[in-house]
Amino acid sequence: MKYGSIAFVCRLFLGATLIIFSLNSSAFPQSPPLEIPFVKEWAASKHALRSAEPFNHWNKAGVIPKACSRCHSTSGFRDYIGADGSKAGSVEHEALVGEVISCVACHSKVTRKMTEVTFPSGKKVAKLGSEARCMTCHQGRASTVSVNKATANMPADKVSKKLKFINIHYRAAAATRYGTQAKGGYEYDSKTYSGLYLHDKHSTKCIDCHTLHTFKVEVANCNLCHRSVKKTKDFKLVRRTEGDFDGDGNAKEGIAGEITTLHGVLYKSIKAYAEKVIGTAVVYDSHKYPYFFADKNKNGKPDKNEAIYPNRYKTWTPRLLRAAYNYQFIAKDPGVYTHNPKYVIQLLHDSLADLSSKVAVNMKGMVRPDP
């Protein structure tokens, strides 16, 4: 009877339990859905833009090459920093297409301890904090060293079939910011260049200026000092360094204006050198790889039938390659005027001065900033 009573009670309890759980669940408190911190912000960023070219370029091949997967996939980045258990500093496996840069790329036990970054030049920057994660990819893929290696022992103005355009890659903000410490731009022999651009003591890391996870510029933070800045476009009106760097007589315009003018003069000088010294006109298209093409009709514009890979510019001399490299270095970092204005102005000045030894370049009134 004792065990029968126990069994009866158990059946009664089980039945009551089933009845209770069959009632409307809304009568009982529910656990809130699990939310991943900052996922909405990240989802609105370009790191999460699955349809973007940086995550679809290798769809036909089905895999992302080791050299590219480091910064174009989560698994490749984790492989490179050793977060997947592999050796740090190299990519051991190709990545499958379809990935973006997700949370676990930048957030791991390994990334929390990262304090050093090696640039393509071989130069290392140590004693870093969270910015090391950003700098690992936003550093470009070429440098002074790679340009010098390609042009070694070649006459400056002799065309070589061995030469081809060397592309810095895209948004190499870390290389810009660290200047000669990274040697991301092409630095001419016997010239001196600025190193790390320290904006101010409150703006030392990437996320001091860029919103965490969305990566948009923190306009409100900048407005604390730059009162005229209300929108992102206003940054181009700001300047701290005195001097008429572009020689146009206006030393009060935003530093971005100085850089834009010099950049334009460099392009004109590149075209003049290509046509007058080499004898093959060149034209640039910022949206078409490999960016420099033969200007067959010499109209100075990248026409549709010209801005194609088979028509890529092939008659390079060392002098032209160095100048074109710096032109692209500046073109592919939209924030150069904030990241390190003195360094890029120095690069522009020296590229113009080098070309001026062969073609007419009006540098009257231009002031080169001291390092």
Descriptive notes:
- The strands form 3 sheets. Strands 1-2 form a two-stranded antiparallel ribbon. A two-stranded antiparallel sheet has the order 3-4.
- The protein is mostly helical.
- It has a domain at 39-113.
- Strand 3 (117-118) and strand 4 form a beta hairpin.
- It has helices at residues 2-22, 39-43, 66-72, 74-81, 103-106, 131-135, 144-151, 173-178, 206-209, 219-223, 255-278, 318-331, 336-339, 341-355; strands spanning 63-64, 95-96, 117-118, 124-125, 282-284, 292-294.
- The protein has 14 helices and 6 strands.
- Residues 1-14 and 16-21 have low confidence and may be disordered.
List the helices and strands and how they pair.
Blueprint: H1 2-22, H2 39-43, E1 63-64, H3 66-72, H4 74-81, E2 95-96, H5 103-106, E3 117-118, E4 124-125, H6 131-135, H7 144-151, H8 173-178, H9 206-209, H10 219-223, H11 255-278, E5 282-284, E6 292-294, H12 318-331, H13 336-339, H14 341-355
Antiparallel strand pairs: 1-2, 3-4, 5-6
Helix pairs in contact: 3-4, 11-12, 11-14, 12-14
Short descriptors:
371 residues; mainly alpha; two-stranded antiparallel sheet; 14 helices; 35% helix
Short description, anyone?
By secondary structure, the chain is mainly alpha-helical. The chain is built from 14 helices and six strands. 35% of the residues lie in helices and 4% in strands.
